[in-house]
Amino acid sequence: VMELCWKISKISFVDLSVTEKNILLDFCNNQLLLKGKLEVRLLEFRELVKEIVNTACHGALLVVGYTPDDANLRVPDHIVGTIAMRGIKTSRDGKYRMTYGDQALKKKTCVRLASFIQLVDFLVQTVFHNMVRTTLTEVVNVLTIHMQHLPSELLVKSADLSMVLEEPRSNPPRFPLFMVDLIVDIHDLKLNPSCAEFLEAFQTLMTDFESVVLNIPVFLSDVFFDPFTEPMVCGKQEERLCGLGPSLEYVIKEDKE
Predict the structure, then answer these.
(1) What top-level branch of life does the organism fall under (predicted)?
(2) Are 95 and 75 in contact (CB under 8 A)?
(3) pLDDT in tens, 144-166
(4) DSSP three-state, residue 219
(5) Where do the structural domains in the chain lie, given as residue ranges?
(6) Nearest to 229 by CA among 87, 102, 100, 68
(7) How far apart are CA 192 and CA 198, in angstroms?
(8) CB–CB of 56/116 below 8 Å?
């Protein structure tokens, strides 16, 4: 699981392979294509980890002599309560070869397994959180590099029409991150795309790559693992042994604040 997490942690949620002369619409479309690929890859990652955890839990339960449905300890119906079971310790109803001590041991083992599943959840959610933070850092770094070439707000407001606001760039990036059209109107100048459109596009971009990881459910709340979080003991389902797992949405929200 650690190795899979290490490999998946190298993924970035944004394609910044082109850092000059981007067209906003094309840039956003490229990010949507990347998002689709990432969703598939992360779901494949989850299924791999899920199978590893499931195999480990079944193996650990079997080591102490139990199966999720206790099928290996069930007494055949035709000999329940008969002389054939004399001297054999069973559950109170005689349907399972499990004493109260055996039942308690299975519950205790399932508590440990539920904690193990929760630990894997924390590990995976931490990796996802770090991936989001790393992606945001990459975006901020690219924007910061380009902003260093921009004139200050004070200079823009105080400059006359004949002044050159931005000198040719001697070091990369030599061109702006995005290209915009300048529309000259009778009364004013307009940019296409506008500043508001850029802000909306980047806000959507950030929301999209957060949603990629937020839409992946944790293992602890997955009904697939109910045999360990809400185990069957002697044919009866026990109360839930643990919570529903960590909330990545809460962590990201707290991180933003």
Answers:
(1) Eukaryota
(2) yes
(3) 998 888 877 777 777 776 666 67
(4) coil
(5) 1-147+174-246
(6) 68
(7) 10
(8) yes
